[in-house]
Design goal:
Blueprint lengths: L1 E4 L3 H16 L4 H4 L5 E5 L4 E4 L13 E5 L6 E5 L8 H11 L15 E3 L1
Parallel strand pairs: 3-5
Antiparallel strand pairs: 1-6, 2-3, 4-5
Length: 117
């Protein structure tokens, strides 16, 4: 057996699952927003903000980040502040999940080896 990478099996499983999901195309809003975290504020392109973030609040680079789903152009704004009971990390994680953000491009590996036959 030869070492395939310096990542853990969890990293490999997550990457494989994300690749498989990306190939299916975007899920309907009823599925990806089942928890009701996001609300639509524009249609062309579809633009979402956290449900408790004021629609009139600024959405520039100094206030947060835009996550764009390259499959359908849907945009999600993640403010740099806690919104309601949702922390920045939770909002960013949910936006990345919704947009099928690729861990292959932005990867953070943990030490370890995977041995593959």
């Amino acid at each position: 057996m030869l070492p395939a990478s310096c990542v853990t099996s969890i990293d490999l499983i997550e990457t494989t699952q994300n690749i498989a999901k990306r190939g299916r195309g975007p899920a309907p809003e009823s599925e990806w927003n089942a928890l009701g975290i996001w609300r639509c504020v524009a249609d062309q392109p579809a633009t979402y903000i956290p449900k408790d973030y004021p629609a009139s609040a600024p959405r520039g680079e100094t206030q947060g980040s835009w996550i764009v789903d390259k499959r359908d152009g849907k945009r999600l704004f993640v403010p740099k502040v806690k919104v309601g009971d949702l922390e920045l990390g939770v909002l960013m994680g949910e936006a990345r999940k919704v947009s099928q953000w690729s861990p292959i491009i932005n990867t953070h590996t943990r030490p370890g080896f995977i041995f593959m036959p």
